[in-house]
Amino acid sequence: MTLSVDEAARFAALLEENQDALVAAWTEQVAATLRGRLSQAELQRQTAELRRGFQQALAGAARDLSGESTAELRAQLAELSASRARQGFSATETAVSVFALKEAVLGVLGDYSSDAATLKDYVAFSSFVDQAALFTFDSYVRVREELIADQTEQLLELSTPVVKLWEGVVAVPLVGTLDSARAQVVMERLLQTLVDTGSPYAIIDITGVPAVDTQVAQHILKTVVAARLMGADCIISGIRPQIAQTIVALGIEFGDIATKSSLADALRYVLAQTGRKAR
Amino acid sequence: MDRVPVLKIGDILLVSIQIDMEDQVALQLQEDLADRIVATGCHGVIIDISALDIVDSFVGRTLATIAAVSRVLDAETVVVGMRPAVAITLVELGLQLPGIRTALNVELGMDLLARERGDDDGDDGDDVEGTDTPAVSTP
Question: Where is the STAS domain positioned along the sequence (chain A) (predicted)?
């Protein structure tokens, strides 16, 4: 059910006339759901702005939320949901910020004669608010998804450092589950570091990898073979007792790749290899 | 026709491949290199492929053949400067470069060759180099 032009105009007038009472009631409603996580003054400002947005949209004879005259209202709603999403409010808490307008309007309407026409007006207005709330929810979800995507990327960056241990020796301490996407990032970064630093040795430390299955072993093996093709040798270190048992039980063959139980052992091994050369 | 230049540095022949390895280029390089090894009596060949975007099975086989020919003429071959992307692609395709030694860059390649010669000349009593090699031959 869409708003007719004179219904919209009547509501615009209603929103204008009772602005103080509306904003107060509305703020109170929202404050009750948010339980003091936003200051009263901040909420007051937000609801006052939203009220002005709704009032202007309705005064512009908006029938639903897709028209030209509601562009500003949509922008306001998008901004509101974005800030709510970033501050960690739930979807319900965000949607209530808009839905509460209905309650507030009902409170104001009580002062007028309640006949069938008013009821019809209210239902039409209510569906307009519903659209606004749905729009808010959509923007909320979009912002949250962006946040999650950003965080995933940051996590990927964070979790795959390549550190220089010694002259000509770099190490990759792997922490967390190694899936295909991460394995790819690790491989690319390690190989690039080998080229950039001209290090002929790389140590892959899997102390922080919770479980090694055939998939993970496959990824590590690929990295080692690629490094060998480029002329660098890889040592796998940080193999915990249970992991060693799993590797044998699964029948994973590391071939002639050197495996050490700790990073210190691996470094000692590499230094022994290069030691005589350095002297 | 394009030709790949072969440079002599001390006891080493340096080949830097800057163009696409087509059949004719590869065969010509193979011939040139064999001629130069015999003419100069060098004992090491370094092939720099850092400019190559693509290494397919054909290029791989060519490199393997060059290495084999050089070995017959008593010269060790080291392939240097393979790009990470190339290495990843080779691994993903399951291609390997059998019988080819690799090193990260020309400098490490020269180190490797020098150490190899050092080992060979061990009987002369000037063996100050280690026996272990950091760069490994591919399986």
Answer: 159-270
